[in-house]
Amino acid sequence: MPLKLFTTACILIGGLMIVAWPWLLGPAPKRGQPKAEFLAYTQRSSAYLAGMCVCLVGSTVGSILIVRKTKRDYTQQTRDNLRKLVAGQSDQSRPE
């Protein structure tokens, strides 16, 4: 359950970061502005992009782990069902 919660949170935060990009970063500095403003905007954009990448990679890894766990559980359940079926068949075939 915590893995699903983590994955869902990463997906939602990453999606909101994609949508909110223009409002959170603000407009790019115009030509002729001081170089310090360009540098500040570049650093802000880089940090924002890195955070977005972390969220999206986190959601991808979480999704992969959820699929692997589900597959493992399904395989184990299939084995258990097959064992029960074979045991039931062998019980029915025994003469009384």
Indicate the mean pLDDT.
Answer: 90
Count every beta strand, where a strand is a DSSP E run of 2 or more residues: 0
As a whole number of angstroms, the C-alpha radius of gyration is 26 Å
pLDDT under 50 segments (min length 5)? none
What's the domain count? Answer: 1
Q: In percent, how much strand structure appears in the residues?
A: under 5%
Q: How far is the N terminus from the C terminus?
A: 48 Å
Please give the largest β-sheet.
none
Q: Assign a percent range to the helix content.
A: over 70%
Number of helices: 3
What string, H for helix and E for strand, traces the elements in order? HHH
Broad shape: rod-shaped
Structural class designation: mainly alpha
How are the secondary structure elements laid out?
Elements (H helix, E strand, L loop, with lengths): L1 H18 L1 H5 L9 H59 L3
Helix pairs in contact: 1-3
Key structural traits:
single chain, 96 residues, mainly alpha, 3 helices, 85% helix, rod-shaped
Report what the structure shows.
The chain has 96 residues and is an all-alpha fold. The two termini are 48 Å apart. It has three helices and no strands. It has one domain. The model has no long low-confidence stretch (mean pLDDT 90). Helix 1 runs antiparallel to helix 3.
